[in-house]
Specification:
The complex is a heterodimer of chains A (about 220) and B (about 725). Chain A has about 220 residues and is of the alpha/beta class. Chain A has helices spanning about 15-25, 70-80, 90-95, 155-160, 210-220, and strands spanning about 5-10, 30-35, 45-50, 85-90, 105, 115-120, 140-145, 150, 165-170, 180-185, 190-195. Among the domains of chain B are: about 185-360, PurM-like C-terminal domain (Phosphoribosyl-aminoimidazole Synthetase, Chain A, domain 2, Alpha-Beta Complex), CATH 3.90.650.10; about 555-725, PurM-like C-terminal domain (Phosphoribosyl-aminoimidazole Synthetase, Chain A, domain 2, Alpha-Beta Complex). In chain B, α8 (about 130-150) runs parallel beside α9 (about 235-250), α18 (about 460-475) runs parallel beside α19 (about 495-515) and α18 (about 460-475) packs parallel to α21 (about 600-615). Chain B is globular and about 90 Å long. The termini of chain B are far apart. The interface of A and B includes residues 113, 114, 200 and 203 of A.
């Protein structure tokens, strides 16, 4: 296989779809296509990206409407068959609402939108999304969200820890997230959700390339 | 029957009504009257300002495009479209929605020109934060900007915020947007070609925003109609879909013209598209998608519901347009067609409502307003510096200045804005100018907004020149060549001669400064009637300026980079305190004249800086503004949170008063830092441009020290400085809220 085929889902209100497309296509030189939310099936892709944004305006709970979009059944089927899915920011929120990942997202503790570079620590490098990082590596990646305060009950948190499902933790908690969680993976290891935006830290000109290795890891894994 | 009470309550004068009668040769219908009132209002018709605005330069060193609703410049085959617009009164009434719809409105002006919006900036003014309502306004406005811009996915990359009692009761919210398009992708805002279709696209029409541009909301035509707030409600999700759908239809080649329904809604769109296309439009109201039942025709015609556009489509291609909009779940209906005679003809279920020549509607009367220099100028310009006592502790003065909300870090604000989306922001907020790259090229755009309105109050002409000069200086410090301006002119009641005198002088100041720097004024906006019971707000001609960086690898930021670099001061410090933040804060005086401005010296300082940056000789460049040298140096030390770098400044000329040297706001000064080995080359460049250059100290350590011989005037730890400056605004807002 020469190129990996990425599919970036576009919900109305997605706004990081172009950015993800750009990084995968122009920076990483992979094969990328948009998948319109009204489609019902995912075909001919190796990895689905649920991008950031405000799907359907997110006037209700974030991601709560997007999970009912026709494409989500296709995404769930794809994931259940072991396909790789990465949800970034709003994409992570949608994965939670769709039940592909455990937990829920609350408003940031300071009740403000927060956009800034943060440092996150890698906890699990044995995933399709993180295999190219060094163990315990600290990454500089921006966040940009209103609702990044990850919540999970104690039992759920224990399960996450036991299964090594916590992939990223904030070095300094910006939003009140339980256990400093910035990103988690499902038990099967093929669905990742993360609040920080790796596509925003994929080029030197933008101040960090730490995020690029998430996409590179995916390519490496599938190859 | 139209009574004098009716037309007056709509904001039309007796004379204007007589003019309408003589133009129509009959009495207007209610709908026609509402349309005239909207089109001839100050907001749409620029009736009091148009005569003066003519003098603003339309050309400059970059090829300039003056469009119908926005303007821009060309850089190679890319058009950079930009404009700034006010949303002051709505924001004062309902800060979140007022600011949000301000952002939404200006962004629509950009994408209806065919350009994808790539960045937003703003220029905000509030009264003193000691008033709880002003805190509420600040929080609401910031919330509105973040709510709208973040959801839309357009990064808010920069701006300015000042606080002054003059804005109590009348805040200013000026929103600026920048977009880019390929030269051949630009769209026009006109309707032409007999038989082509007029389509209404986007959101449905409701009663929101009725009379936003005139005084309609204070009057009802038919009894029983509930009055609605005149502030529009923003729906960024709808607008996001509208952006994508609009750019998609523009790429089909079937769209001949497109216009946003902004101020005066459908009235403005129909009459101006017809008038600008030198044609007429015949349309039927009953097909317009409505959100509310039983709307009167005149309400439909002047409603300012958000996220709607009027499109002129090639006959036969309506279906293609409709398909794109239904993909985004948006309305697109054909409501009329282009006609040969230059009339606006509007029907309601087959009954004729409006039949007016398009030109008559759009050619609002133009007035020459009387102006007079206010008596108080003599008093406020008089400052006897000898009675201003020099402070005993400069550390305390510096910390108090850094705490002043106009100078304090705006991190609390810009962290709430998504300033990184679209992957272009090369220099993040917090430096002199924000920089965004132009993907696919080696170039970048720098952008800034600027205006010190206290200077404009003390000296409108020079204050406005300084606003232009400082905006240019900010851009130069990022490595950009100043290219073009959008101005948002916020003033008091134009009918009052002293206010109009301020306006006239500011416009002249902008004109002269822009001509001097050879930058065009590509777009702009005027907002009058910014008054509170105590009088007009300070004259505030906000300048939005963009500059071009030819090599993205030669971008510069304001903060010190290395230990043991030399610190250079370009320009001359005069003994002047007039209009300074120091004089206001420490001595509670708003007095004196605005700082001196020698445009030639300004240009010399800018050329020196730009050449030194392009030659890769400097590590940082920061312009001096509010708070003067001491504040500027402190900012160089601490504005990169990840790496604070101290400074020892021990080679200043103390031939003027110490407070003037440290906190005076002399113009045309820039602080550079460089490696010792680069000094000689920078000196050569300065000499070539006849710029005054002085090495005043060096970087390093963990303190900021300014000394005169062995006497340490300022000696503070970086932690103390940083904490004071970065957290001041947050603390002000959190205190006793």
């Amino acid at each position: 296989m020469e190129f990996l085929r990425f599919g970036v889902v576009v919900f109305p209100g997605s706004n990081c779809d172009h950015d993800c497309f750009y990084v995968l296509n122009n920076v990483l030189k992979q094969d990328v296509k948009y998948i319109w939310h009204k489609e019902i099936e995912v075909r001919d892709v190796d990895c689905i990206v649920l991008p950031g944004g405000f799907s359907y305006g997110d006037y209700l709970r974030t991601g709560a409407i997007a999970r009912f979009s026709p494409i989500m059944q296709g995404v769930i089927d794809f994931a259940n068959k072991g396909g790789l899915v990465i949800g970034i920011c709003n994409g992570f929120q949608i994965l939670l609402e769709a039940g592909l990942l455990p937990g829920a997202m609350l408003r940031n503790k300071n009740v403000h939108f927060i956009c800034k570079h943060v440092h996150i620590k890698l906890l699990n490098k044995n995933t399709p999304f993180t295999n190219l990082y060094k163990k315990d590596e600290v990454l500089k990646i921006p966040i940009a969200h209103n609702e990044g305060n990850y919540y999970i009950d104690e039992k759920g948190l224990k399960t996450l820890k036991e299964n090594n499902q916590i992939v990223f933790q904030y070095c300094a908690n910006p939003n009140g997230a339980a256990d400093n969680i910035a990103g988690i993976i499902n038990k099967e290891g093929n669905v990742l959700g993360m609040m920080p935006h790796p596509e925003r830290s994929s080029e030197k000109e933008l101040g960090s390339q730490d995020g690029l290795f998430i996409f590179k890891s995916i390519v490496e894994w599938v190859k | 029957m139209i009574t004098s009470e009716t037309y007056r309550s709509l904001g039309l004068t007796d004379k204007e009504y007589q003019k309408i009668l003589s133009l129509l040769k009959r009495e207007p219908t209610v709908t026609e009257l509402a349309m005239f009132a909207a089109e001839w209002s100050e907001h749409c018709g620029y009736v009091s300002s148009r005569n003066l605005l003519k003098i603003l330069p339309k050309t400059g060193k970059y090829k300039t495009l003056i469009g119908e609703d926005s303007g821009g410049i060309f850089v190679d085959d890319i058009a950079i479209i930009f404009k700034m617009e006010s949303h002051n009164h709505p924001s004062q009434v309902e800060p979140k929605q007022g600011a949000a719809t301000g952002v939404g409105g200006i962004i629509r002006d950009i994408f209806t020109a065919g350009a994808r919006p790539i960045a937003s900036l703003n220029s905000l003014r509030f009264g003193s934060l000691s008033e709880p309502y002003n805190k509420y306004l600040l929080q609401g406005v910031v919330d509105g900007i973040q709510f709208y811009g973040n959801c839309l996915g357009v990064p808010t990359i920069g701006g300015e915020i000042y606080f002054d009692e003059s804005y109590n009761g009348n805040c200013l919210v000026n929103a600026m947007s920048i977009g880019i398009a390929k030269k051949n992708e630009l769209a026009k805002a006109c309707a032409f070609g007999e038989g082509n279709s007029i389509m209404y696209v986007g959101a449905s029409t409701g009663r929101d925003g009725i009379g936003g541009c005139s005084v309609l909301a204070s009057h009802e035509f038919s009894e029983g109609d509930a009055k609605r707030p005149t502030v529009q409600i923003g729906d960024p999700f709808m607008e996001k879909c509208l952006i994508e759908a609009t750019l998609e239809i523009l790429s089909t080649g079937y769209v001949l013209g497109i216009k946003d329904m902004g101020a005066a809604g459908l009235t403005c769109a129909v009459s101006e598209m017809a008038s600008d296309g030198e044609s007429g439009i015949d349309m039927e109201l009953c097909n317009i998608p409505l959100r509310e039942k039983h709307m009167e025709p005149w309400e439909i015609m002047v409603s300012e519901s958000q996220a709607r556009m009027l499109v002129c489509v090639k006959a036969g291609k309506e279906k293609a347009i409709k398909n794109i909009f239904s993909k985004w779940d948006l309305n697109a209906v054909t409501i009329g067609k282009v006609i040969k005679d230059k009339m606006v003809r509007i029907w309601d279920n087959g009954k004729i409502l409006v039949e007016v020549k398009a030109d008559i509607l759009t050619k609002a009367p133009i007035y020459d307003m009387p102006y007079k220099k206010p008596e108080y100028m003599k008093k406020i310009n008089n400052l006897d510096i000898d009675v201003v006592h020099e402070p005993s502790d400069y550390n305390i003065v510096l910390l108090n200045l850094l705490k002043s909300p106009s100078i304090a870090s705006k991190e609390w604000v810009y962290e709430q804005y998504d300033h990184m989306i679209q992957l272009n922001t090369v220099v993040l907020p917090g430096s002199d100018a924000a920089v965004i790259r132009l993907k696919g090229t080696n170039k970048a755009i720098a952008a800034t907004t600027d205006c010190n309105s206290r200077y404009c109050y003390l000296n409108p002409y020079r204050g406005a020149q300084i606003a232009v000069a400082e905006a240019a200086r900010n851009l130069v410090c990022s490595g950009a060549e100043p290219a073009s301006v959008t101005d948002c002119l916020n003033f008091g009641n134009p009918k009052k001669p002293d206010r109009y005198w301020q306006f006239k002088n500011c416009v002249q100041g902008i004109t002269d400064a822009c001509e001097f720097f050879d930058v065009s004024v590509a777009s702009g906006n005027v907002s009058f009637y910014n008054e509170n019971p105590a009088g007009a707000v300070y004259p505030t001609p906000a300048i939005g300026m963009i500059g071009i960086i030819d090599d993205i690898n030669k971008v510069c930021t304001q903060y010190f980079k290395n230990e043991d670099d030399l610190i250079i001061l370009l320009g001359i410090s005069l003994e002047e305190l007039g209009g300074s933040e120091y004089l206001k804060l420490v001595h509670e005086l708003v007095r004196g004249d605005a700082p001196e401005l020698d445009l030639k010296m300004e240009r010399a300082v800018q050329l020196t800086t730009l050449e030194a940056i392009r030659d890769g000789l400097v590590n940082s460049a920061h312009d001096l503004s509010e708070g003067g040298l001491a504040v500027g140096l402190a900012e160089c030390c601490m504005s990169n949170k990840e790496k604070l770098i101290g400074a020892v400044v021990d080679n200043l000329n103390f031939d003027i008063r110490t407070d003037a040297l440290l906190f005076g706001e002399s113009q045309s000064r820039i602080i550079l830092s460089c490696a010792e080995k680069s000094l000689n080359q920078i000196k050569k460049i300065a000499k070539k441009h006849k710029t005054s250059l002085q090495v005043i100290g060096s970087t390093g350590g963990n303190r900021f020290i300014v000394s005169n011989n062995d006497n340490k005037l300022i000696d503070l730890s970086l932690e103390k400085l940083q904490d004071t400056w970065s957290n001041a605004l947050r603390r002000d807002i959190d205190s006793s809220n």
